[in-house]
Each structure stands twice: as C-alpha cells, then as structure tokens.
Amino acid sequence: MNTAVDISRAPEIQSGKKGHITMAKIFCVANQKGGVGKTTTAVNLAASLAALDQRVLLIDLDPQGNATMGSGVDKAAVENTVYDVLVNGVTVLEARTRTNAVAYDVLPANRELAGAEVELVGVENRERVLRKALTEVEADYDFILIDCPPALSLLTLNGLCAAHGVVIPMQCEYFALEGLSDLVNTIKQVHANLNRDLKVIGLLRVMFDPRITLQQQVSDQLKQHFGDKLFDVVIPRNVRLAEAPSYGLPGVVFDRASRGAQAYIQFGTEMIERVRAL
Ligand code: ATP
Ligand code: MG
C-alpha cells in the first residue's frame, strides 16, 4: 500500500480496524505557557508507550532541544535535525535517531530550529511541511509524539497540522485556565481550516501536589468544566521526574518505580485506550 496516502481521507486506516494497515497516531503535546510539563510529558509518554511495546517516534519541535537531550541524544552532536527536515528537504528517515538509553526514535532539535520560523515564511503551505514529511514514516510507528514549543508559532502550527490530536498538560494552579482558551481557539481554527482530523484528546494534570488545597480545588473545577476530556491519571510532582533529564533519561527509564514514573506508565495505558476509542 502506498504509504504516502492522505490519512485525512482514509477513515478506515485511522480507526485501526483489524485487517487494515495501521498508521501512526500523531499527537502534539502543546500548551503555549512555558514550563508546564510539556517536554516531561512528551518524553515520558514516549518511554511509557515504548515500554508497552508500541513503536514510537518522538519529534522535538522546540529549539530548546529539551526532549532531544532528555532522550539521551546530544543536540550539539546530531548531524540532521527537524530543522533540516523542515527547511533543507532532508527526510525523516535520514534525520531520525535513537540512543541505547531509550526504546523509541527521536527526531532531534537544537537552536537552529529557531531559524525555521523565518525561513519558512515564503514557502508554500508552510504550515504543512511537517505533515508532508511524516507520510514516509507513518507506517513505521504506532505513535508519533510532537513536543511543541511554548508559543502558538508556525512551529506549533506545523505540529497541529500534522496531528490527529492534542494532549494538553496543565498545572492545577490559579491561572491554569488563563491562556487555555487561546490554545483551544487555535485548535478549533486549525480544525476548521487546515486539519479536519485534529481534536483535543485530553487535558493532563501534571506536577500535582494533593497537599495543596488550591490544587485540589482547581482539579475539581477542571473536572466539572472538562468532564471526560480530563485524563483520569494525575501526574504527581515528583523529584525523580525532574532529576531524570540531567542523566539523559526519561523518568520512566531513570527510576521506573518512582511515583512519577508509575503515573506516566499509567498515562501510556490510558492513551492507548483513548486512541482505540477514537
Ligand atoms: P517549556 O515551555 O520551556 O518547553 P515545558 O512545558 O516543556 O517547558 P518541562 O520542561 O517539562 O516543561 O518542565 C518544566 C520543569 O518542571 C522542568 O524542570 C521539569 O523537570 C519539571 N517538572 C515537570 N514535571 C514535573 C513533575 N511531575 N514533578 C516535578 N518536576 C517536574
Ligand atoms: Mg519543553
């Protein structure tokens, strides 16, 4: 079967029904707020899904390169990055990489990627460059995860145009909902104009501390407001998750028994269930 098929026109492939070739489900981890746990979620979800025998590609779409480093890939030493895919016509096959540390592939990024915003300006269909580039590897994976930068930029737009869904990590803090409407509106616009497949898969509560009453209250409000759009699993604040990147490892690999890792493994299971129901 031609792997360059337009997945938006192939519902039988999307649903992954038995007897059909299954193509990767593609998800952005996005929230334009900085430091809310996007990269920690993307890296640990990748590791968790890999531990659950899923074939996973993690795309680092942030010039900070944190998902790259957090997967044990030296962002300064890589030959090709997602920048080369977006701007220089390098294929994902050529640019993807993997270390022994993790059981998933990485399409790495470094600060060069910041230039892509400007360099893509004159390019036709500039918001669909990533989507086009991914068609050749869709059949290689069960999941493709995209770690987005903290901005509603052209890079994030490329992620949203390539994806079937968005996972939104958020902290249960007073300002948690502020800015969320901008993200949701952007997703709605992309859905209406650029990518009919796109939907919000769920909101994930991260860095949760149940001892803080306000966090409990905000969590309850989120439940009332978003209902089953909220993932059941709650990721606790856990120092092992924060320590892991300095070892070039996802928390799920660094200390699998830790509470944080266990929560992300549970999240992997929940994602698989949600994707089945899509
Ligand atoms: P940016 O917007 O800069 O890309 P981000 O949204 O990707 O940030 P992370 O880098 O994942 O956020 O997390 C921000 C900081 O919080 C990091 O130092 C990370 O190690 C820490 N952190 C994330 N999740 C947890 C957690 N559950 N428990 C403890 N620390 C966490
Ligand atoms: Mg990040």
UniProtKB/TrEMBL annotation:
Domain of life the protein comes from: Bacteria
Organism: Caballeronia sordidicola (Burkholderia sordidicola)
Gene3D superfamilies: P-loop containing nucleotide triphosphate hydrolases
InterPro entries referenced in this protein's UniProt entry, alphabetically: AAA_dom, DNA_Partitioning_ATPase, P-loop_NTPase
The protein's name in its UniProt record: Chromosome (Plasmid) partitioning protein ParA
Residues in AAA domain copies: 25-200
